[in-house]
Amino acid sequence: MNNIRNFCIIAHIDHGKSTLADRLIEQTQTVSQRQMQNQLLDDMDLERERGITIKSHAIQMDYKFEGQQYVLNLIDTPGHVDFSYEVSRSIAACEGALLVVDASQGIEAQTISNLYLALGHDLEIIPVLNKIDLPGAMPEEVSDQIVDLIGCERSDIIHASAKEGIGIAEILAAVVHRIPAPKGEPDGAFQGLIFDSVFNSYRGIEVIFRVYNGEIRKGDKVKFMATGREYYADEIGVLRLEKEPRDVIKTGDVGYLISGIKTAKEVKVGDTITRMDRLAAEAIKGFEDVKPMVFAGIYPVDTSEFEELREAMEKLQLNDAALIWEPETSAALGFGFRCGFLGMLHMEIVQERLEREFDMTVITTVPSVQFNVTTTKEELLKVSAPSEMPEPNHIESIEEPFIAAQIITKSEYVGAIMKLCMDKRGILKNQVYLTSDRIELQFEMPLSEVVFDFFDRLKTISRGYASLDYQYLGFKEGDMVKLDIMLNGEKVDALSAIVHRDKAYEWGKRLCEKLRELLPRQQFEIAIQAAIGQKIIARETVKALRKDVLAKCYGGDISRKRKLLEKQKKGKKRMRQVGNVEIPQEAFMAVLKLE
Ligand code: GTP
Fold first, then answer.
1. What predicted TM-score, i.e. pTM, was given to this entire model?
2. Which atom belonging to ligand 1 lies closest to the Cα atom of 21?
3. Which residues pair with 171 in a beta bridge?
4. Given this model, what pLDDT does residue 572 score?
5. Binding site membership of 19 for ligand 1 (Cβ less than 6 Å)
6. Interface ipTM
């Protein structure tokens, strides 16, 4: 146990965590030259394509240092704010963290928030100044920022380049010297905290855990304390590049367990595993509940796939503890699920993973935050779907969620950012100069204005020199109204949105225009109308299609005709028929793209 070190790598997005993980894996010769590839731990296709880490990834490395053999359990974590729940769970399995800061960018919003997460768990912080090879690197200035932020000595900061392999040996030495060995009682009753899980269609569910006390042996009978269920530990092992079976996993270590569990509901991330022959008195404190920020419906494109979609959601949830959902019905779309996400990127990733990993084709409806609605009968409703909003004359008051936002930027962009935040109904609370040229702005803002396109706009107006982090604050009264959309006179609940009254007219008008562009023309005319209560506030028309598409092929050869039909069929992906109108996925997101 004295020779184990558990640590994670935390940083703002793109500061070089995954690249640094690669170098550590290389240096410790954890994988062969042949197996080595860039961003080795980002093993999901989606992560590689997008160049971002979505999941935390654990890997065990052996390291010989000063004549001693060490086991280093490394967890690479995501940087994007939508995945901070992944970071917080990883942190719970570690005693130390490498805080990576890009020497050309300096401290950013998620550098600070992830640092606080780590300090909250009393982790030993090793500051790493990365990318010192870049011509634009500002090692002196950024070192000052780091010293200010964490109160360390300048000499504690390790200068590194993950790309060029500079500073890697120093980092490994610091991991061994500065990060404490895990604590716990090797002879105590076994307690393993589940911090992740994966569904594997051949072997059932694999749970990943950190041992706090005692040990577990292959074949032991175990109990999951929250669910009360009992299993045999058919296979246990450690996470090398592949899973490597072992006979025993001891205190302080990180391992996996396979016990033939087939249904996703049986496993809960944050649960404690104990051994039946010597039950632990209590469970380890699990994780804080996730607080979803954005809600949207997810519906199968093919209504007959509802049950399949449910299974897919259960399996995905195993590997994405931040995803929450419950069944819902929409008048327009039938049976589906109301889901809660940590942000728009999270929502996008869930949709993509459902399609790639589970072969589902789904429609996501207009996203919304959750409102507190008090009815005239004094009932308190939590409303996250426009269809749940009571009629205006039944509403006493509505409260909307607010967040505290921190934006770090260069002083030259402050004016433009202030204007953007005010447009989004933000209230400036404070501004702090971090250095002469970098400033932190603190705003209180309605969550509904931030979750959708705010981040993109912030990036655009600051040319990328602004980073954003936010925390949930609470509810405040807001003058919100439901904006209904009707197609040929019929309300389409899945297209409605809840918006601030001041913006409702403008939005209604633009939403109709946008939908006119997005709805494919059909054999008949489509009237698009926006309404608040009984009052129609905007109207657009999609003209009827004049010619049959196939008419174009008149006299043409059959293969061309087939190709055209194929093309149409492909276009049908992610479309839903509502009444006699076909609505493509983009139409449900139109409300997000109005500005
Ligand atoms: P997320 O996981 O998405 O938060 O990103 P990350 O922090 O893991 O960053 P990643 O390792 O993917 O690196 C981001 C980019 O920076 C990549 O293009 C890397 O090649 C580059 N990069 C990482 N380290 C260095 C470095 O030391 N020097 C230079 N010049 N580039 C680096």
1. 0.80
2. 11
3. none
4. 44
5. yes
6. 0.97
Domains, the chain, with CATH or none:
4-178 (3.40.50.300), 191-275 (2.40.30.10), 294-365 (3.30.70.870), 372-478 (3.30.70.240), 482-593 (3.30.70.2570)
pLDDT at 571: 44
Position in ligand 1 atom list of the atom nearest CA 11: 7
Q: Which residues of the chain have pLDDT under 70?
A: 33-34, 39-41, 43, 546-573, 591-595
Distance CA 173, CA 82 (A): 32
pLDDT at res. 559: 62
Q: Which residues pair with 585 in a beta bridge?
A: none
Q: β-pairing, 96-102 with 4-11?
A: parallel
The answer to whether residues 75 and 94 touch, using CB atoms and an 8 Å cutoff, is yes
Q: pLDDT, tens digit, for every residue of 465-477?
A: 888 888 889 999 9
Separation CA 332–CA 330 (nearest Å) = 5
9, 13, 18, 130, best to mutate for ligand 1 pocket (most atoms within 8 Å of CB): 18
Output phi, psi for 112, to 5 deg.
Answer: -70, -45
- pLDDT attached to residue 142: 93
The residues, any chain, with a CB within 8 Å of residue 574's CB and separated by 6 or more, are: 301, 361, 362, 363, 584, 585
Continuous H helices in 244-343 = 306-319
